[in-house]
Amino acid sequence: MRPTEALLPWGLLVFWGALLARQVRGLRHSVYWNASNPRFFNSDGGYTIQVSINDYLDIYCPHYQRALVLGKPESFTLLMVNAEGYRGCYETPGAFKRWECNRPYAAYGAVRFSEKIQRFTPFSLGIEFQSGREYYYISIPAPESPGQCLKLRILVCCKATTTADPATEGPKSQPRGRGGPESEFFWGGGEGNLRGLKAENQTAYAGVGFEFFSAGLSALITGWMVM
């Protein structure tokens, strides 16, 4: 057996592992949250993003160079609201405060907040998303800010075909506090810390691990058959 033939199964295993890891990791969806972004004023349904479970929603706050600013910078609070709050772009009694964009002159660039679109969260203040449902974010300008109320609609793909539950107008599981460590906080490109998984989330990841093992074993057997 030539050395290249011996390495073939392992190469296939690495390839399938990298492909699976990319799928599990998900995509990142960037939103530049400021009044100069024309997508917030789209007449065709407003600013809407379709995401999948394990994707990330990245919110970039307004950022300014002090010497270039004319007037006051935008600053606001970002809230998760129900459909009523989204349509009217105002804070409803059940609204959940997610973040504050109040550092327009941050030294390391625009402040970025990230929300992971996941079914289960290990954080007590986190949001659990369900496939086939819609979620809504709005921004309330600070009293001294010249900005206006902006809003975003998130569509989580895809609606299950085996359940009769209707789509919700807001988070299915209500958050249990204000703000929360669930969302990653960034200045520039730094990464936040990840904590342990809940028991039910561990079960989901165990299934992913089994799929990874099966794919690797299949690739290994295929390589041997080729040789």
TrEMBL record:
It comes from Pseudonaja textilis. It is a lipid-anchor; GPI-anchor. It holds the Pfam family Ephrin. It is found in: Membrane. The keyword Metal-binding does not apply. GO terms for cellular component: plasma membrane; side of membrane. Residues 164-185 are annotated as: Disordered. This is Ephrin A4.
